[in-house]
Amino acid sequence: MEVLHIIGRRKTSIARLYLSPGCGQIVINQRNYKKYFPQKLLIYKILHPFSLTNNIDKFDLKIRVLGGGLNGQAEAIQLAISRALCKINSENRRILKPLGLLTRDPRGVERKKFGRKKARKKSQFSKR
C-alpha cells in the first residue's frame, strides 16, 4: 500500500494527513501528538476513529495542520483520519458514518456587523 494523502477541514483549520502502514507513530507539525495536544480530550478526538475501527497501532501518520485553534485542528485531523480509514477499507464507513465522523462541520465564525461590538453584541441601552 502506498502513502495516502487526505485533507480534513473544520472552521479555519486545514489538516493534511499522510497515512502509511506502520506501528502507530503520529507526528503533527514535526512534533509528537501528545506534545502538540496537551489536553486528553483532544487526543481522544484524534484516536477515536482508530479505536472504533480496531486500527490502533497499525498505521503511521504524518500530519501538517494550519490555521484555527487547537479544537478546530483536532476535529480537522479527526475528519481526515476517518476519510483515510474509509479509503483503506469500505467496511469502516458503516461504523463511522452513523457517528457523524465523515461529515464536514460547516459552521464558521459569524461576521461582525457595523454599529455593533461583535457579531451580535450591542452597546448598552440608555433610556436617558
Question: What's the quick description here?
Answer:
The chain has helices at about 35, 40-50, 70-90, 90-95; strands at about 5-10, 15-20, 25-30, 30, 60-65. With about 130 residues, the protein is an alpha+beta fold. The protein has a 5-stranded mixed beta sheet.
What can you see in these coordinates?
This protein has 128 residues and is α+β, with helices and mostly antiparallel strands. It has helices at residues 33-36, 40-52, 70-88, 91-96, and strands at residues 4-10, 13-21, 26-28, 31-32, 59-66. Helix 2 (40-52) runs parallel beside helix 3. It starts with a strand and ends in a 32-residue tail after the last helix. The model has no long low-confidence stretch (mean pLDDT 93). One of its GO terms (cellular component) is cytosolic small ribosomal subunit. This is Small ribosomal subunit protein uS9. It comes from Candidatus Walczuchella monophlebidarum. Belongs to the universal ribosomal protein uS9 family.
Please name the defining characteristics of this protein.
Ribosomal Protein S5, domain 2, 4 helices, 5 strands, 128 residues, five-stranded mixed beta sheet, elongated, Ribosomal_uS9_CS, Small ribosomal subunit protein uS9
Low-confidence stretches: none
Global morphology: elongated
Computed CA radius of gyration, to the nearest angstrom = 18 Å
Biggest β-sheet description: 5 strands, mixed
Which architecture does the CATH hierarchy give at level 2?
A: 2-Layer Sandwich
Strand count: 5
Give the strand order of the largest sheet, numbering strands 1, 2, ... along the chain.
1-2-5-3-4
